[in-house]
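Summary for the lay section of the report: proteins are chains of building blocks that fold into shapes. Here we show the chain for LuxR family two component transcriptional regulator and then a coded description of the shape we predicted for it.
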Amino acid sequence: MQPTVRVVLAEDGVLLREGLVGLLGKFGFDVVAAVEDADALKAAVEEHAPDLVVTDIRMPPGFSDEGLRAAVELRKAHPGLAVVALSQYVELSYSADLLDSNGGTSVGYLLKDRVVDVEEFVAALRRVVDGGTVVDPTVVRQLLRRSRDPLSRLSAREREVLALIAEGHSNTAIAQILTVAEVTVGKHIGNILTKLDLPLTDDKNRRVLAVLTYLRSRAAA
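The coded shape description reads as follows.
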């Protein structure tokens, strides 16, 4: 008999969360906590010290990459923790960080709509707990494509700011559109110019070069 695996599950959808709790229980997993957001996930890991975390990526409050960022933080804080990201989408912002963490062991990234075989899914979870790596082929393809993209260094917010620059918006207009302070926009732009390794000419020319890089990346996508 295989040893019981203690699991913390993070999924904001009630039906899917409860369904996974029942499913995992039938296959020898003990779901010690089932939560709906990233903060509760981190608290549950600290409280229960599980063997495995299974987490959605897009969760409250922003429904962007909260679960993925939490998973990366947890892997740093708990190097022996096995983590599987289970998502409807491929979110690239922190995917490489998660898969590279702790030498790429005991980690997985699976897409929900491709998990159609229950026994295969359970086997994948156990491989991760045993130190293996399980990654959906779609995730692999998109990460490889991203590695050739000069914009891959940018955060999601920085890409958003760069897109608005490319549309011709001023810093003031971008601040209004994103509902942030203009100084915050300036910081994002500084980060963009640095991450794109643009030459230290005047800022106007660097903005133009950044826009050209953005447009070339979009054309190649």
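Put simply, here is one thing we learned. The beta strands are 5-10, 29-35, 52-55, 82-87, 107-111, 133-135.
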